[in-house]
Amino acid sequence: MRDFWQRFSRNRSAVLGLGIIFLIIVMALSAPLFFPGDPFGLAGKSMSPPGESGFLLGSDSLGRDVAAGIAHGAKTSLLIGLIATIVAVLIGVIMGALAGYYGGIIDDLLMRTTEMFQTIPSFVFAILLVAIMKPSIESIVIAIAVVSWPAVARLVRGEFLSFRNREFVQACHTIGMSDVRIMLGEILPNCLSPIIVIGSLMVATAILIESGLAFLGLGDPNIMSWGFQIGAGRTLLRSAWWVCTFPGIAILLTVLAINLVGEGLNDALNPRLRERAS
Amino acid sequence: MNHSTRRIRYVLKRLLQAVPIVFAIVVMNFFLLHMAEGDAVDVLAGEAGSATPEYMAELRAKFGLDQPLPVQLAVYLKNVITFDLGYSFRHEMPVSQLIIDRLIPTGLLMVSTILLAVGFGILLGLVAATGLNTWRDTAISIFALITYATPLFWVGLMLIVVFSLNLGWFPTSGMEDLMAFHDNFWDRAWDIAHHLVLPTITLSLFYLALYTRLMRASMLEQYGQDYVTTARAKGVTEQRIVFVHVLRNALLPVVTMAGVQVGALIGGSVIVESVFAWPGLGMLAFEALFARDLNLLLGIFLLSALLVVAVNLVVDIIYSSLDPRIEVG
Fold first, then answer.
1. Do the Cβ atoms of A242 and B296 come closer than 8 Å?
2. What is the Cα–Cα distance from A229 to A233, expressed in whole angstroms?
3. Phi/psi of residue A53, each to 5°?
4. Given a cut of 50, is residue A273 above it in pLDDT?
5. Does the structure show a pLDDT above 60 at B80?
6. Chain B contact for A127, CB < 8 A?
7. Residue B285: its chain A contacts at CB < 8 A?
8. Does A251 touch chain B (CB under 8 A)?
9. Which residues in chain B have Cβ-Cβ distances shorter than 8 Å to A11?
10. Is the minimum CB–CB distance between A217 and chain B shorter than 8 Å?
11. Is the predicted pLDDT of residue A167 greater than 90, yes or no?
12. Closest Cα partner for B150 from B204, B107, B215, B216?
């Protein structure tokens, strides 16, 4: 662990990214403290520029506090990004492990499915899924997971393929270990590091997809999010630039920080995986 | 077997491989439509104001929704083959007609985006790789890192704030000035090009970052190859090595990537077109979303998925004829 931290901290930009993520998490957790009350609620004079009438980052046409929206939206972005990624990684690991371990027809079938999902334009597919299921946290998480798992499946399949004929796996077969135990207990721990790297980069992509969906009006209507703020503020571009600008900077910083950490993890965990996955 | 019959065989093989994927996409589309269509009847009946069970049943019969599922699927497959994608009740037009009307603006945006992104990506990647670890490399890498993390819609809005609202250089939205009745072709072309600038820059930024990174990595990989050492040993100038030897080989993966990214480009164009009110497929998708016109949305989705399959096919075929090392057997 200390060895890992030493290698990770050699990459200064990755440490910077980690610092930014830490600050954003603190912001998300302290949002109810600094901005108690509903971020959708009227907080004062509408269309105030940043720094005036008690608004740090200004207010929008309905008198909503932009800063409060950003603080509350942080939780939405981080949570959706994290949960969607966990779901996608779970699906991808199951599909990839089965395909790589068993090979043959199972592999063919699962990989054709993966290929089909990779062919489909992912953002349009996500829009469609959320529109059909009606916008809510659950449908957004499902949509992002459905469009993101194929990359994990391909990666895991490759790893399982390379491990399944190794001596230690054959030894497990000889002592009569079940397939499930070999897959979960023996092979999977060996391919955790590339999965962690691809997962960390997927959180960033998931946050971008979520903000895009919310911008198009497909966010959960009861939950404040950065994409929603920008979407709601776009009609005010001429008179109140700040409503769109600051939430965008929040998205940019978060995604950038996660990408930096992901690349740092990549360098520290496995120098093999050079390509970044998207 | 001579080369040209091998070529034709390869093309046919790739076409055959695409068939199951297309079939699977169409079938999946049918089930999504099925999930959504129950709602369509409910919505229509609700809007008509007389949602009696008889009326609902009549509507279902009209759409063939009372048939067993396999029959509905067969009818749907037959319809798709004849490019009948259903009817949009909001626009009161067939979906296929609506889509065809929007193809040209989207095509225009995509082609100009690919040209800009690939062109500048190759240039920046080249500059970064030749000046490895200098300030140029660092600056380009930071630029790529930031654009890679920026949401497209936000870039578009910020460009509008700076270049349209404050500087007044470019129009904020649309494809052409509807009040100006251009009597000659060039005036109109200029007008459209003027409207095209901001959407193209916005959409190309993300891919620019991608191609820059790819080109840089690809150049560096080629630098490590034996033929570069050989060229150096022969006394070939560094400049000649870069432009004649390395560049050519480094370009191939970048060109393939341009084809692979078409699916993502369609997704990006939904965002960019709705920001700039560019009247293409993406804008149509946004309107469909707004009007809860799922039939239309599914039609656009189906078409864009088929487009990706087609582009991948074409890129594969072009690629195999560009690079003779690729086995065509």
1. no
2. 6
3. 40, 40
4. no
5. yes
6. yes
7. 124, 127
8. yes
9. none
10. yes
11. no
12. B204
Chain A residues close to B152, C-beta within 8 Å: 212
Backbone angles phi, psi at B93, to 5 degrees: -145, 155
| Contact check, Cβ <8 Å, B286/A120 | no
Phi (first) and psi of residue B94, to 5 degrees: -65, 145
On the question of pLDDT at A83 being above 90, the answer is yes
Please report residues of A whose CB lies closer than 8 A to that of B32: 128-129, 132
A248 with B157: Cβ contact below 8 A:
yes
Give the Å distances, CA to CA, from B201 to A161, A241, B46, B139, B205: 42, 20, 43, 19, 6
Q: CB under 8 Å to B185, separation ≥6 — which residues?
A: none
What is the distance in angstroms between the CA of the first residue and the CA of the last residue of chain A?
Answer: 28
CA distance B113 to B324: 29
Distance (Å) of CA B195 to CA A186, B114, B192, B201, B222:
58, 17, 5, 11, 40
CA dihedral A136→A137→A143→A144, nearest 10 degrees, is 150
A201 is written with which tokens? 């980069």
Q: What is the pLDDT of residue B47?
A: 62
Prediction pTM value: 0.85
Most B CBs within 10 Å: which of A77, A114, A120, A236, as the mutation test of the B interface?
A: A120
> A245 to chain B: which residues are within 8 Å by CB?
158, 161
Question: CB-based contact (8 Å) between A40 and chain B?
Answer: no
List phi, psi (to 5°) of B303.
-65, -40
Backbone angles phi, psi at A65, to 5 degrees: -80, 120
Name the residue in chain A with its Cα closest to that of B143. A256
> Closest by alpha carbon to B127, among B237, B231, B225, B215?
B215
Provide the H-helix boundaries in chain B. 3-48, 53-62, 69-81, 95-130, 135-149, 152-159, 185-223, 226-233, 238-240, 247-260, 262-276, 281-290, 294-322
What's the distance, CA B254 to chain centroid? 16
Contact A52, A41 (CB under 8 A): no
Q: How far is A174 from chain B (nearest CA, A)?
A: 39
In this predicted structure, the answer to whether residue B39 has a pLDDT above a threshold of 70 is no
CA distances from B250 to B122, B242, B245 (A): 9, 10, 9
Half-sphere exposure of A245 (CA within 13 A, CB side): 16
> For residues B235 and A261, which has the higher predicted lDDT (pLDDT)?
A261
Please name the amino acid found at residue B248.
R
CB contact under 8 A, B157 and A234: yes
Q: Which of A119, A215, A256 sits opposite B145 (nearest CB)?
A: A256
Q: Does B305 sit within 8 Å of A120, measured CB to CB?
A: yes
CB contact under 8 A, B25 and A132: no
Which member of B149, B161, B286 has the closest CB to residue A216? B286
- Residues B126, B315, B204, B277, Cα dihedral to 10°: 170
Q: Looking up tokens 């990549």, which residue turns up?
A: A266
